[in-house]
Amino acid sequence: MAHIIVVGNEKGGSGKSTTTMHVATAxxxxxxxxxxxxxxxxxxxxxxxxENRGAFCDRSGVDLPMPVIARLGEGPDPLTPALQQxxxxxxxxxxxxxxxxxxxxQMAHTLADTLITPLNDSFVDFxxxxxxxxxxxVLGPSIYAEMVWSARQMRAQAGAGAIDWLVLRNxxxxxxxxxxxxxxxxxxxxxRRIGFRVAPGFSERVIFRELFPRGLTLLDLKDVxxxxxxxxxxxxxxxxxxxxxxLNLPGVTVSF
Length: 256
Hints:
Blueprint: E1 3-7, H1 16-29, E2 34-38, H2 45-60, E3 68-70, H3 79-86, E4 92-96, H4 103-111, E5 114-120, H5 123-126, E6 130-132, E7 138-141, H6 143-158, E8 164-170, H7 177-194, E9 197-200, H8 206-211, H9 231-247
Parallel strand pairs: 1-4, 1-5, 2-3, 2-4, 5-8, 8-9
Antiparallel strand pairs: 6-7
Protein name: Division plane positioning ATPase MipZ
Pfam families: MipZ (PF09140)
């Protein structure tokens, strides 16, 4: 069966679609069969990213690795038929969830073998995972963490195995070191209580916004004629390499 990777939280602007697109294309470049499904039926950032990629390939004549994309079905359970379409032809299926609580997102989390939760490195986003006292002490899990806990219970009852949950600290800045340490300490404490791993994600870089209209990723730059890589590009590629390695996906050896 395909390994299902869910990228989700319940807050917009944390880098879910950028993370989904880069992980999907990295796996495809390494020779794995990859499928994708955008569960954000309104904004469709991941779906539009893939559409931009297809259009760029058609215009330029460049053949870039492309995840197989499926669309949601109809009826009360639109997710199952889409997954049934993808699963026979995929090693990995990535589900990009909306930045809000929806039934589709809740269903997707119960299917996750690996869950990636991008989180902007601030206490505003941290509140999605846990409630804090005014002194910064963790009081207990918050809405999203409780939803993941419920998904874990449902998987356990169905004998479907554990969810490997990875929280990404996105947009890590070089400034505000005191706040960065406080967020890091709170995440480390919470990770032991509710069971997730913490890893650095993507720093804030202009390149990510520039790549979207053409549907490109950091790994495509040389294929489209970018010979001179800036230090920012090289550092961003290393962040992606570190992320894919940290995911510890079955049968994946990082080779880019």
